[in-house]
Amino acid sequence: MNVYCRILVRATITALIALSLAGCIDSSHPIMPDAQPEFGPRLNLQLFGLRKGYAREPQQVSFTWNGALYAHAGGGLREVSAFSLHPFEGGDYIVQIVSAKRARISEYALLHRLVDGVYQVVAIDETDADEPTRTAYCGKGDRTDPSPCRIETREQLFAFARATAARQKDDGGLVVRLPDGAERRRDLSRR
Question: pLDDT digit string (tens) for 48-105?
């Protein structure tokens, strides 16, 4: 997989180093509107790239809910300016990403809960779907912003998300949710 998908996956909160670029889907506008702060008003995350089942290249990043999206508030992962989380099938979430370099383009990943506070993130990849799905749903963008697979609808996004979820990949990114300052103060006051 190439550099574009790595940036996309990083944009999905994970600093995913090992993904290839060839098949990541995107859209020219957000397909999933009306996001909610699924994980509260502040997110402090420890991120790792996953390759061959091993966590590597750790970094921390913070995001704050701005009323519509989780906006980058500090730390690493500067290529992601914001993202939103949307409940999906089987307890997973679809992550809709706003890249710092391509603000008008939305990119997508799956967030899968492994245990409480620990998640795997995988870019939703065109190549996970069968050829008829790719042929029916993938557009190529335009001359100024080409894409390996530009989608337009929620139905298209869900078809590719289901295909990626079915693959059960061991690469991608590992996200550990760290307590924010308010959670730490509450934990200390209970002792």
Answer: 998 877 788 899 999 999 999 999 999 988 888 999 999 999 999 999 999 888 878 9
Residue 175 has pLDDT above 90, yes or no: yes
Q: What are phi and psi of 84, to 5 degrees?
A: -135, 155
Say what the pTM is. 0.81
User: What is the CB-side half-sphere exposure of residue 140 using CA atoms within 13 A?
Assistant: 2
Q: Residues with Cβ < 8 Å from 36, sequence gap 6 or more?
A: none
User: DSSP letter string over 37-85?
Assistant: -TT-SEEEEEEEEEETTEEEEEEEEEEEE-SSSEEEEEES-TTEEEEEE
Pairing between β-strand 118-123 and β-strand 139-141 as defined by DSSP bridges: unpaired
Gap between the Cα atoms of 191 and 179, Å rounded:
16
Q: Which of 111, 140, 162, 131 is nearest to 28 (CA)?
A: 140
